[in-house]
């Protein structure tokens, strides 16, 4: 496990220079131990200490990245067994399987589903990240052609799967700039694939029939200089695969077993032929504790629930989901359109914006940063009060978009209207809106 704040503090220069952004070295050490600061923020730490702290404070499960550009999948980096202890860090990636033995039409359809199945929810885009490309034909040329096709037609992070060294080599060469995951190392090909992964700086999957053999292979690869590994314990039954996920996490977190301190890959696609059962198995591995989940195909009715489950589990429970502060046009507002103001708690924003859309009255919705708190909670905390809202409105630029000077506030905080009018000045009028967002359509229609 990582060092405590006190242990880290003993290794720091203790200058209290404040250049790291906090008042004391002790405070910086505590932030570092909690994962809220980077060691590079300290300008006076020695190289020896950097090396020592980097190794000692590294997450028990090594983080790594697959893919490039905007669609980089980061997995690993976990520090707790249970989400309520702190939070889970990097969400698992979902992969769709394509094979070079599939008909061309089926490949096209799967790539189309990969590109198309994306959902907007609470200000986020929920989507799958990976395509697992399997060399079932045994032909390196066909495999390379499919890799190039996937690369050119999608932004997918890729998993290259083959038992043939020639095929994997051709696939990696064709997609090395996409940083694919190579699948997979065993005792027979360890030296060759280790060299391939080192040459092209790609992560590598380690597969074995049991955890002891898996740990032994990982140790050999680590000794060869490879650090970005993904573990496949090999079992393709739900019970054994589920047990191995837990054992690997416990070994890394509780027993500091570095040879098992890597993210894992699971294959629900190889555990059943029933699409609904496959989705249930995948849901199990979202919770416990897969880094990558490979599905036989994507269907909206099964993929969307998995994406929402992943969102819920991998959202930090200590940090509310927030919208960015600013002006949000709802509909096609103009210079005469109403102005409404609300907080930046995501759920509040989507409820309010949804009701405004339902009213078919175009509006300007001002979303104020209240650190993700709801309306009443933000008001009680002094973050959604008259003077603060007035300052926000004046700085927002909304006055340049409308010719009137009237703003609607939530009815639940009607008490702030006087303070807000005083802050905005005599040109502005504050109107009290309904207490419940559900009443906004009638309110807006009545005002028009």
Mean pLDDT over the full residue set: 92
> What is the makeup of the main sheet?
8 strands, parallel
The CATH architecture classification of the largest domain is Alpha-Beta Barrel
The first-level CATH class of the largest domain is given as Alpha Beta
Cα Rg: 27 Å
| Structural class by secondary-structure content | alpha/beta
Tally of strands = 17
Poorly predicted sequence stretches spanning 5 or more consecutive residues = none
Question: Your description of this structure?
Answer:
The chain has helices at residues 5-11, 25-33, 47-56, 104-116, 140-153, 165-175, 190-200, 211-223, 238-254, 275-287, 300-313, 346-359, 375-380, 386-396, 417-424, 440-447, and strands at 64-66, 73-75, 93-99, 119-121, 124-126, 130-134, 157-161, 181-185, 204-207, 229-232, 265-266, 292-295, 326-330, 339-343, 363-368, 406-409, 429-432. The chain is α/β, with parallel strands linked by helices. The chain folds into three domains: 5-56, Electron transport complex subunit B, putative Fe-S cluster (3-methyladenine DNA Glycosylase II, Chain A, domain 3, Orthogonal Bundle), CATH 1.10.15; 64-313, TIM Barrel (Alpha-Beta Barrel), CATH 3.20.20.20; 326-447, Rossmann fold, CATH 3.40.50. The strands form four sheets. Strands 10-9-8-7-6-3-12-11 form an eight-stranded parallel sheet. It has a five-stranded mixed sheet with strand order 13-15-14-16-17, sandwiched between helices. α14 (386-396) crosses α15 (417-424). The model has no long low-confidence stretch (mean pLDDT 92).
